[in-house]
Design goal:
The protein has five helices and no strands. By secondary structure, the chain is mainly α.
Length: 94
């Protein structure tokens, strides 16, 4: 589900999409969280397509809400990808 959601992202930035997909792969291969958290996270990524404001705050809130179901390694991987998203968003606002 998460990988499918990431595939729908409409970014021209191949490295960004690669990092997001890599984060999803780590999550899914490690079976580090349940289906509910996966659905919430997938929904957050899909909504990024339409966000023109700060994308970090709502995404971080969703991650933190589901952090108990994620392994530390998986959470760190996703947060790394999200940090990259935040940097890209900041560059776009300049």
């Amino acid at each position: 589900m998460l990988v499918g959601a990431l595939a729908k992202l409409e970014f021209d930035d191949a490295p960004l999409l690669y990092r997001l997909k890599e984060a999803a792969r780590v999550q899914l291969e490690g079976h580090s969280y349940g289906g509910n958290a996966c659905a919430v996270l997938a929904g957050a990524f899909v909504r990024l397509r339409w966000m023109t404001v700060d994308i970090w705050t709502p995404l971080q809130a969703e991650l933190q809400a589901n952090a108990a179901e994620m392994s530390a390694r998986s959470l760190a991987t996703v947060l790394t990808a999200c940090g990259y998203l935040r940097e890209r968003a900041a560059e776009g606002k300049r």
